Amino acid sequence: xxxxxxxxxxxxxxxxxxxxxxxxxxxxxxxxxxxxxxxxxxxxxxxxxxxxxxxxxxxxxxxxxxxxxxxxxxxxxxxxxxxxxxxxxxxxxxxxxxxxxxxxxxxxxxxxxxxxxxxxxxxxxxxxxxxxxxxxxxxxxxxxxxxxxxxxxxxxxxxxxxxxxxxxxxxxxxxxxxxxxxxxxxxxxxxxxxxxxxxxxxxxxxxxxxxxxxxxxxxxxxxxxxxxxxxxxxxxxxxxxxxxxxxxxxxxxxxxxxxxxxxxxxxxxxxxxxxxxxxxxxxxxxxxxxxxxxxxxxxxxxxxxxxxxxxxxxxxxxxxxxxxxxxxxxxxxxxxxxxxxxxxxxxxxxxxxxxxxxxxxxxxxxxxxxxxxxxxxxxxxxxxxxxxxxxxxxxxxxxxxxxxxxxxxxxxxxxxxxxxxxxxxxxxxxxxxxxxxxxxxxxxxxxxxxxxxxxxxxxxxxxxxxxxxxxxxxxxxxxxxxxxxxxxxxxxxxxxxxxxxxxxxxxxxxxxxxxxxxxxxxxxxxxxxxxxxxxxxxxxxxxxxxxxxxxxxxxxxxxxxxxxxxxxxxxxxxxxxxxxxxxxxxxxxxxxxxxxxxxxxxxxxxxxxxxxxxxxxxxxxxxxxxxxxxxxxxxxxxxxxxxxxxxxxxxxxxxxxxxxxxxxxxxxx
Amino acid sequence: xxxxxxxxxxxxxxxxxxxxxxxxxxxxxxxxxxxxxxxxxxxxxxxxxxxxxxxxxxxxxxxxxxxxxxxxxxxxxxxxxxxxxxxxxxxxxxxxxxxxxxxxxxxxxxxxxxxxxxxxxxxxxxxxxxxxxxxxxxxxxxxxxxxxxxxxxxxxxxxxxxxxxxxxxxxxxxxxxxxxxxxxxxxxxxxxxxxxxxxxxxxxxxxxxxxxxxxxxxxxxxxxxxxxxxxxxxxxxxxxxxxxxxxxxxxxxxxxxxxxxxxxxxxxxxxxxxxxxxxxxxxxxxxxxxxxxxxxxxxxxxxxxxxxxxxxxxxxxxxxxxxxxxxxxxxxxxxxxxxxxxxxxxxxxxxxxxxxxxxxxxxxxxxxxxxxxxxxxxxxxxxxxxxxxxxxxxxxxxxxxxxxxxxxxxxxxxxxxxxxxxxxxxxxxxxxxxxxxxxxxxxxxxxxxxxxxxxxxxxxxxxxxxxxxxxxxxxxxxxxxxxxxxxxxxxxxxxxxxxxxxxxxxxxxxxxxxxxxxxxxx
Amino acid sequence: xxxxxxxxxxxxxxxxxxxxxxxxxxxxxxxxxxxxxxxxxxxxxxxxxxxxxxxxxxxxxxxxxxxxxxxxxxxxxxxxxxxxxxxxxxxxxxxxxxx
Lengths: 669, 522, 99
Fold this sequence. Notes:
The complex is a heterotrimer of chains A (669), B (522) and C (99).
Chain A: H1 3-23, H2 32-57, E1 65-75, E2 78-86, H3 88-111, H4 118-137, H5 141-159, H6 166-197, H7 202-212, H8 218-235, H9 243-246, H10 252-261, H11 266-273, H12 275-280, H13 282-303, H14 309-330, H15 333-360, H16 373-376, H17 378-392, H18 398-413, H19 418-442, H20 449-457, H21 492-507, E3 512-513, E4 517-518, H22 519-524, H23 540-567, H24 571-578, H25 580-587, H26 592-639, H27 646-668
Antiparallel strand pairs in A: 1-2, 3-4
Chain B: H1 2-16, H2 21-44, E1 54-62, E2 67-73, H3 78-98, H4 103-122, H5 126-135, H6 137-147, H7 157-187, H8 196-201, H9 206-223, H10 232-239, H11 242-267, H12 269-294, H13 300-319, H14 324-355, H15 371-384, H16 391-406, H17 408-433, H18 448-466, H19 469-491, H20 497-508, H21 515-521
Antiparallel strand pairs in B: 1-2
Chain C: H1 3-23, H2 27-52, H3 56-84
Helix pairs in contact in C: 1-2, 2-3
C-alpha cells in the first residue's frame, strides 16, 4: 500500500473509534470504551509509522504525495477536493500527534476510570485526535479549515466536559468563540489566496505564489496576517490567548492532550506549512516572530506568580509555543518543529504528573497548599522532576537541545534577530524558575495533610468537591470529579504512559545533536527544500556555544528557584511585598481578560441590549404597528357600513341598482 | 410527474377529511411520504448538466391574459422542492404523534401549505408564482391563529397572526401589481404573457425596472424576513404551533430568497445592478442585527427566529454578490438552513415539553439523562453556526467568496456574523443542555417516535456535510443562467479596480481561474 | 295583449316583494317576499320571450326557478336552524356579522 493509503487509515481509525464508542454508549461496560479508544489511536500510530516508512522509500524529490477521495465542493470555479497531502511535514506531525495521543489515551484509561462520563470522554478524545490528524494531513486550505474547526469543537467539548460546572461551560464557550475568530481569519486568508492564485490546493498555491506576488506586496502580507489570526487563536498567542488558562477546567488528560501536546501546536504547524507564503511576506513573518516573543515573555512572567498548578503549566505552554512561533517565523523550521515534538513529550508528562498530584489533593489545584509529596508519591515526583528538567532545558534533556536550536538559529541569522536570542534566554531563565517552583512546592518541604495521609494509609483523601472559582459544591452526577481518584502510583496504565513519556522527554534530544546527527532536519528537508531561510544553518561551534549558555541559564534558574522556594522560603513573601504593583499586575494576567471584556464583550452586549430594548421596540415594532394601524383605520371606515341589519344591506342593494339604472337611462337619452 | 408532486399533498389532505380523527394525521403523513418519494424520483431523473427547464408542464390557463399553468424544474428549484418534500414529512409526523385539536382541519391546512409552497417553487409563470406565493399564507394564517398559543402578557395568537398577515399581504399586493405591470409593459401592446422565460427575452426599460424591483423586493424581504421588515416575526413565532413553525421557518422563508433568483435577477437586471449595494446593506444589517438580537433573547423560539434573520441575510448577500459562486452558495445555504432550522424547532418542542417553559433562563441540564437528544441538538447547533465540515460552512464559504470578490468590505462585515453565530448558537445549546438542572425539569431522553422524526433529519445534515457537491453540481448551470442578464449589464459599466485586478492576475496564471471572471468578461 | 301590462304587473310584484324584504322582520316573510321578487322577474322574462318569439327567456326563467328552489331550501334550513337554537326569529336581532 502506498503512503497515502496509510494516511487515510490514520484518519479512519480515530474517526471510527469515536463513532463506535458513541454509538455503543449504553453497551460499553467498565473500561471497554477506554480500550477501544486507545486501540484505535494505537492502530492509527502504527499506520502513521507505515506511512513514514513508505514515504522514506520514495526519492527525496517525490516526497509530496497527494490523494483525493472525492470532489467536496466544485462549482463556479472553486474546486475543493477531499484530498490529503502526505509529505515529511505532515508525516512528522501525524507521528507526534498519534504517538503522544496514544500515551495520553492510555493514561486516561486509568485516570478517568471512575468518571461517569467515561464513554463520552473517549468518544470526544478520539474525535479530537481525528480532527488534529485531519488538520495536519489536509491537502488544501478548505480541508485545513475543516480540521481546524473540528479541533476547536473537540476542545470545546472536552473543556466543558464536566458540563454541570458553570465555569467549565463558560471556559468552553470562550475557547470556542476565540477559535472561531481564528477560523474566520483563515477563511478570509483562503478566499484571498483563491482570488489571487485561483486555487486552494497547497502544492499549487506554493507553486504559483512566487510568480503571483512581489515580495512584501500588500496582498501577500494581508494573506499571511489573516493566516496568523488563525494560528494565534489556536496557539494561544497574544492577544487571543485568554482561553487557554481557562481551558484548564477540563479533565487533566485533556489539558495534557489538547493544551499541551497537540492542539495548541497547530498554529506552529500552520506557519511551517505555509512557509513559502511567509517567506514572500517578511513583514508578516516578523510580526509573527515578535508576537511569539511577546507571548513567551508575558506568559513566562505570569507563570511566575499564579498559584493554580495547572494554570502555571498552561502559561508555560503558551510561553513554549512562543518559542516555536519565533522559530518557524524566523526560518528555523526544523528547530521549531523539533521543539514542538520535545515539548509534546515533556509537557504531556508534566500535566500527567500534575493530574496525579491533583487527584491526591482531592481536586484542589492550589500549589500553596501542596507540599512534601516526595515520599508519598515517589513515582509521580520523579516524573514531575523529569518533566521540569526538560522544560527548564537542563543540559542533555530533550528541551535543552530543541529550545536552544531555535535561539542559535536566531543569532546566526543575525541583525535584528539577535533580539530573539537575547530575550529568548531571559524567557529561559523564567522557565527554569517557574518549572522548579512547581517541583519545590509540590515535592519538597513538610508533607501537607493529604500527602501524610497518603503516605501512611495508602488512601487518597476524599473531600466534598467544590469549585474553587465559585465555591459551589460540585454536582457529581456527570462524573465530576468521580467517586474515586486515581493516582499514578496505583494505576498501572497511568504509570506506563508516564514512564514512556519520561524516557522520551529525557532522551528525545538525541534526534538532533549538533555535530552528531540531525535526523529531523534531514527528514523534513523535502518540505523546506525551496526555502532560502531553511538553508541558513548555524555552525556546530556556534550551536554548542549557545547550548552552553542555555544550559548555564537553566542551572542558574533552578538554583534561583531553590533559593527562593527552599533555602529561604520567606523571601518570596518579601518580594511580593516589595513589588506589590508588579505582582498585582502579573497575578491579574496583565489584565488581558479585562481589556477584552471592556473592548469587545461589553460593547457587544450593550449594542445587543440597545437593539433589544430600544430599536426593536420603537423602530421595528413601530413599523409593524404603523402598517397594521393604517390597515385597521381603513378597515374601520369601511366597517361602519356593516351594520348587521339585513334590511339596510337590501336597501343599499336596491338603491345601488336603481342608481345604476337611472345613470344608464339618463346617459342614453 | 411534476403535477403529481405538486398536488399529492393536497389530495391526501382532502382524503384525510374522510377518515376518523385519529387517522387524519397519518393520512397526511402518508401523503407527505408519497410526495417525498415522487420528489426523489424527479431528482433522480434530473439532468445536472442542463441549464434549462426540465420536466415542464405548460397548459394554457387564462389564455386571454397570457397566463398559463406552467411548471418546471431546473437547478434553482430542484433542491428547494426536495427540501419542501423532505421537511414536511417529519413536521407532519411530529404533529400527528401529538394529536392536535380538530385534526382534520389542522392536517388539511398543513397539506395545503405543502402544495402551495411546492407550487411557488415550481411555477414558471409569474402570475402562477404570485398566486401560490399568496396561497402559502392561507393555511398558515389558520394554523397560527387557531392552533397557536396566547401569551401571558395578553397578546393573543389571533392578534399576532393578524399582524403577520397584514404585513406580508401588503408586500404580496405590491408584488401582484408589479407582476401585472411587468407583463403589460413587456408586451408593449402586443400579446400578454406571464411566462418567466418569455419575460426574460424582452427586458423592461430602466425606469420601470426601478420601481418594479422594489415592489418585488418588498414582498420577498418581508417574507424572509429581512432587517427592519421583520417586525411581524417575533409575535408570530411566539404564537405559532411548533410543527407548523418548523416548516414555516425552514421552507417559506426561502421562497423570498428564491424569488430574487428566479424573478428579480433575470427580469430586472439594470435595477439589480443599480440597487445591489442597497440590498447588500440590508442583508448585512440583517446578519448583524439578527445575530445580536439572537444572543440577547431568552425565548428559545426567538433565538432561532432571529438566527434565521441572520442566515437569510447571508443568503441575500450571496445572491446580490451577483456572481455564480455567491448564488451557488446561497442556494446551498437555503437547503442547509432549511435542514437545520426544522429540527431546531422540533427539538425546541421536545425541550419545551420537558422543561415546561420556553424561557432559556429556566432551562438547563437536560443533557444529563438525554444523551441522544443532546447529541442530535449538538449536531444541529454546530451546523447552524456553520462549523467548517458542515455543508452550511461550504454554503457560507461560497457566499463569502462571492461577496469578497464583488464587494470586499461587505465580506469582512459578514465574517463578523460568523463569529456572532458561534456565540448565539452555542449559547442556546449550553443553556438548555448544560449547567445545573433547575428542579422541575424532566430530563428524559427522546422517545423512539420523536427519534424516528429527528434522527433521519440529522442524518440528512450529516450526509450533506460529507458531500455538498450533491447540491452544487446541480445548481451551477442554472445559476449561471439566472445571472447572465445582470452580468451583461454589469460588463457594460466601467470596470472596477477589482475586476481590473482579476484580469491582471489571470495573465499570471491562466489555468484554473474562477469561471466567474470569465463569464464577466464575455 | 301588449307586453306593457305584463311588465307593469311584474314591476308591481317586484316592488311589493322589495318593500316586504325591506320592512318585515321575520325571516320567513322575507323569504316569501324574495320569492315574490324572483317570480316578478320570471314573469318579465316569460313575457319578453313570448314577445320576441324565442325560447331563451323561458329557459332563463326555468333556471331562475331552480335557483329559487335551492334558495328556499337553504333559507328554510337556516330558519329551522335558528328556531332550533332558540334564537329570536327576528332579523334585526341577528346581527352577529356587524363589523
